[in-house]
Each structure stands twice: as structure tokens, then as C-alpha cells.
Specification:
about 140 residues, alpha/beta, four-stranded mixed beta sheet, two-stranded antiparallel sheet, 6 strands, globular
């Protein structure tokens, strides 16, 4: 047994149970009236967080549709497309998922300019992406 086995097992179990409820509760409370105290929710540690959420909601992100080649024509009416969003630091997961899913895939990648350039280099060097024409990669640029 590794001496940190229990620690990392507990961390793993904790991460597996995350379902964004904590973040959702924080975001929903931003700018709302607290029903218990009937006062505005103004937690000092969340004020900057709430402000950033409000600012992000007004931005129109720059999107590059079909960032990486997509030349797929539907073969049957029963094609099922896997659709997901991912951050640039996890873009390697696209290739892992594509190895197990032969149907069309559409991915939105949230990235900076530099991360998009790195993603392009990754896609160009991948044998799998050269062989598949049914994978659409879209980039949503961070401001």
C-alpha cells in the first residue's frame, strides 16, 4: 500500500461526487434577496465573484465555428451526434472520446488565442483527426 493511498482515494471519491450544486447555489444567490434575513446577499468573499458573473453574462463571446475541418454528410436519419463543451486544458479528451464513438461529434472548446493555436497543432498532428471527417471542433474565445 502506498502511504498516500487513503488520502488520494478520499479526494477521488469527493471529486466524483461533485455535481456543480455548490457553484449553482452561489451563482443563484448573487444579487438576490436572502429569504431568511430579508436583506441583500452581500457576502464579502463572494462580492467579487458575483460581480464577475454579472460582467460575463453581458459579454458576447467570439466564436469560430468549424475551427477544424468538418466535411461530413449525414448517412442516415438515425445518426446520433455527441455534443459537448470542454476547456482547452482538457482538449486531449476529444481524441479519447472519438476512439470510442464513431458517429458525428461536435465540440465547443473554450480557449484563449494561444490555446487555440496549441489545439490546432494538436489536431494537425493527430492521425485520428486526419482520418475522421465527422468531428466538428468549434472555439469560443476567452476575452
Amino acid at each position: 500500500n502506498h502511504k498516500y493511498y487513503l488520502y488520494f482515494r478520499n479526494v477521488h471519491n469527493m471529486l466524483m461526487q461533485y455535481d456543480a450544486v455548490i457553484l449553482e447555489n452561489i451563482v443563484l444567490r448573487c444579487g438576490k434577496v436572502d429569504k431568511v434575513t430579508n436583506s441583500s446577499y452581500q457576502s464579502p468573499d463572494l462580492s467579487n465573484f458575483c460581480h464577475s458573473i454579472e460582467q460575463e453574462s453581458t459579454l458576447q463571446p467570439c466564436t469560430h465555428l468549424y475551427f477544424y475541418g468538418h466535411a461530413y454528410q449525414t448517412k442516415t436519419i438515425y445518426d446520433v451526434t455527441m455534443v459537448f463543451q470542454i476547456s482547452a486544458d482538457r482538449s486531449y479528451m476529444i481524441e479519447k472520446l472519438a476512439r470510442h464513438w464513431e458517429n458525428p461529434i461536435s465540440v465547443a472548446v473554450y480557449a484563449t488565442d494561444f490555446e487555440a493555436w496549441q489545439l490546432m497543432k494538436f489536431l494537425e498532428s493527430s492521425i485520428l483527426f486526419k482520418q475522421r471527417t465527422n468531428i466538428a471542433i468549434h472555439v469560443v474565445y476567452k476575452k
